[in-house]
Design goal:
three-stranded antiparallel β-sheet
């Protein structure tokens, strides 16, 4: 009986070693079930290690895939390769089929609780679910294939590449990912009707903080007229407050004469919309019709300031300086030389060969900015341009033997020309910095007058404080900025800016500065003697 019992025990042990699930998976070549009641518990035939997770974990164990289970020390390289391929193949096939089936897959079937547990709104965070058990390489390849569909649409529709960085686009991608497959884009009718109206309402809601800020601290109204590609005259109105600039309205004025009265009535409508007590100043360019509207506004609303556009005024200043006899011939010669080089394929190709395909013309936002950037580019490529003008290829070109070609050659080889270019850059560079300040998104009123004074000093230093050289430049600046960038409002802002008043306490005793500050307070608190007295006699003197 003992012998019979021993045989029965051996048979049971043999059955246990051969126990496996009803599967043809190649992992059963290395695995055996440890417990008939737990078919996910398997044992490695090679090293004897027991583990949960079934054949998937066994493939990881044999293949040496880190992260979930330790590697088998007894497996051969061939066994590791077979198990790795078997482990990755089903997942890769599933991923490829999912991407290849875009447009043909079954729709995402939402349950009644999906709208609570998976919100579409990207601004609402969702609970992080357990990451899928796939390798990083496969996930990266899958993401790349999705990106190819996006890239194809961008190329076909000529969408700018930087649109990919837009926050709204990123929110769309997040919302689409939360929705799942089979999302259908809205129709054109839906986009230009219902959704457009909803977005307008959303934008109005976003602008409510601006409206509150206008009442609390006041605002500026900015007007601008321009002509579009269809030669239509467009007038825009924008409102600037502490929170930033916002668009108010726009109108086509092609059939109307832009007289002072017309502009005044247009601005008057915007003042009525915003509220007379909420408007501090009106900002326009320096056209004569705007100056006429300024006088009409002062009669009707004496407490509102009318300010000239700083960027437009600075452009007038640099244009006036550029016409002076010290600079005009240099700028003209540089213009003629660059026009000649760019007018012929041979000379243009030759220039790009010597400059290593770098252009000498650098376009800017304004005409003056383009001229300054081009002068900077010329001086940086002086050596290359001179080498080009002395080359056999230049001498052999038929275009360089013409009158304009000889003139361009003389300009390039002229020492006086390059000295003049250097002087232009030294004088115009402080003005360019000031122009960038005026054209930036931040407020510039408080620093404009102070920076103008610093710019004058920088220009005087650029010409080595030679009175005969800087006197005409300063006079040109004063002529164009008079009543525009040196108004009482600019000077008062200069005085109240700690950047300047703390550096030079004599500002508070300067007669011109104090007089400008008093004039501003009298205009701002028009017909309110009590507030004027508090500001001028109490706050200012304390």
């Amino acid at each position: 009986m003992a012998s019979s019992a021993s045989k029965g025990s051996a048979a049971a042990s043999s059955d246990a070693l051969d126990l496996k699930r009803n599967s043809d998976d190649m992992a059963w070549e290395f695995a055996v079930c440890c417990n008939p009641l737990d078919l996910q518990r398997v044992k490695c035939k090679l090293c004897g290690k027991e583990m949960g997770g079934g054949v998937t974990r066994m493939k990881q164990h044999i293949a040496g895939i880190k992260g979930q289970v330790s590697s088998c020390m007894m497996s051969t390289p061939d066994q590791q390769k077979r198990c790795r391929e078997a482990y990755e193949a089903p997942q890769a096939e599933g991923n490829d089929e999912e991407l290849a089936g875009i447009g043909n897959s079954e729709g995402h079937k939402s349950g009644p609780l999906d709208k609570f547990v998976k919100p579409i709104d990207p601004s609402i965070p969702v609970k992080k679910f357990q990451q899928q058990n796939i390798s990083d390489a496969i996930d990266k390849d899958r993401s790349y294939k999705v990106g190819q569909y996006l890239a194809r649409w961008i190329y076909k529709k000529n969408v700018p590449f930087n649109a990919i960085n837009d926050d709204d686009f990123k929110q769309f991608c997040e919302a689409l990912g939360r929705y799942g497959p089979k999302w259908k884009p809205p129709s054109q009718h839906l986009l230009r009707q219902k959704m457009l109206l909803q977005e307008v309402e959303r934008t109005r809601e976003l602008m409510k903080p601006h409206e509150i800020e206008r009442v609390a601290t006041g605002c500026s109204i900015m007007t601008d007229a321009w002509t579009d590609k269809k030669r239509r005259s467009i007038m825009n109105l924008c409102v600037h407050c502490k929170l930033g600039t916002s668009f108010l309205e726009s109108k086509e004025a092609s059939a109307d004469a832009h007289t002072s009265e017309y502009i005044f009535n247009y601005v008057l409508e915007s003042i009525d919309k915003i509220g007379i007590n909420n408007v501090v100043q009106i900002v326009t360019d320096n056209a004569s019709n705007n100056m006429g509207a300024k006088s009409m506004l002062k009669e009707k609303f004496p407490q509102i300031f009318w300010t000239s556009c700083a960027t437009h005024t600075l452009n007038l200043i640099v244009e006036a300086i550029g016409k002076l006899k010290q600079f005009a011939p240099i700028i003209i010669k540089a213009k003629e030389m660059t026009i000649f080089i760019y007018a012929h394929h041979k000379t243009l190709s030759l220039m790009r060969f010597y400059t290593r395909k770098r252009d000498i013309i650098r376009p800017g936002v304004t005409r003056f900015a383009s001229a300054f950037l081009t002068l900077q580019s010329l001086i940086a490529k002086k050596k290359e341009l001179r080498a080009m003008a002395c080359s056999d290829a230049w001498e052999g070109c038929k275009h360089t033997r013409t009158k304009k070609g000889k003139s361009a050659h003389a300009t390039i080889m002229s020492r006086a020309f390059w000295n003049g270019v250097s002087l232009c850059i030294k004088v115009f560079e402080p003005l360019v910095k000031l122009l960038r300040l005026a054209d930036s998104n931040g407020p510039s009123m408080a620093t404009m007058y102070g920076e103008l004074l610093s710019t004058k000093k920088a220009i005087m230093a650029a010409v080595e404080n030679s009175e005969k050289n800087y006197l005409m430049i300063i006079q040109a600046m004063d002529t164009k900025m008079k009543g525009r960038l040196d108004s009482p409002l600019h000077i008062a802002a200069f005085m109240l800016n700690p950047k300047y008043s703390y550096a030079d306490s004599t500002i508070f005793s300067d007669v011109e500065v104090v007089a400008a500050f008093m004039e501003v307070m009298e205009q701002f608190y028009h017909d309110d003697d009590e507030k004027q007295n508090i500001v001028l006699n109490i706050d200012f003197t304390s």
